[in-house]
Amino acid sequence: LDIRDKGCLFPGCSCTRYVDSHHLKHWADGGETSLENLATLCKFHHRALHQGEFTIARSPDEVEEFQFADRCGNKITPTFRPQLPCHDDVSAEILHIENFRPEIDSNTCKTRWGGESMDYHMAIQSLLEREYRAEKNVSAESLFTEASVEEIDEGRLILQ
Fold first, then answer.
1. Exposed, middle or buried by CB within 10 Å (0-12, 13-18, 19+), for 138?
2. DSSP label of 37
3. Fewer C-beta within 10 Å: the chain N or C terminus?
C-alpha cells in the first residue's frame, strides 16, 4: 500500500507521514483488507472523509485509480502540482516552504468551520492560561511544570 500510494491520495495533498489506511468498503460491512479495497489518506483527510466532507471510490476507467467527490457530488480534481515537492529529504521540503510565495485570491480566507458548536470551556481555559503565562512570564511548555494545579476538570487543568 505504501509503495502504491506513496502518501495521502487526496488531490493536492503531499502528506507522506502519519497516514491511515482507509477501507473503501468498511471491514464491518464485509470489506476485505486488500490492496483493491484500501486507500492511503492523511489524518486530516481521513477524518474529513468520515465526517462526510467528500467521498472516495475506485475509478471505473484506467486513467485515474481513485475518484474523489465533494459532499455535493462534484469531482475533486488533482491540482496542477503537489503542495510540496516529492523529496525524502526533509531539508529540501523546509527550503521549499521558506521560498514559497502563496497565491492570494478570493478563496484565501474561507473557513473550514462546519457549523459545530463552540467549546466555550476550552476557549475560556485557553485565555486564562494565556493570561497566567503573561503574568508569570512562563512559556507554554513550562506551564504545567511551574504552575500549581488546583484541580482537574474534565481532563483540563484549572490553574490557581
1. middle
2. G
3. C
* Helices H / strands E in the chain, number of each: 5, 7
- Predicted model pTM: 0.49
Give the angle subtended at the CA of 70 by the CAs of 68 and 71, to the nearest 5°: 130
| Cell numbers at 106, concatenated | 478570493
Largest CA distance in the chain: 63
Give which of 35, 34, 39, 3 is closest to 19, Cα–Cα. Answer: 39
CA end-to-end distance (rounded Å), the chain: 50
Could you tell me if 125 and 113 are in contact, meaning their C-beta atoms sit under 8 angstroms apart? no
Which stretches of the chain score pLDDT less than 50?
Answer: 85, 87, 145-156, 159-160
Answer for the pair 38, 1: CB distance below 8 angstroms, yes or no: yes
pLDDT of residue 147: 43
Return the number of other C-beta atoms located less than 10 Å from residue 43's C-beta: 13
For 50, 121, 141, 144, 152, the CA distances from 159, given in Å and listed in that order, are 36, 14, 15, 9, 9
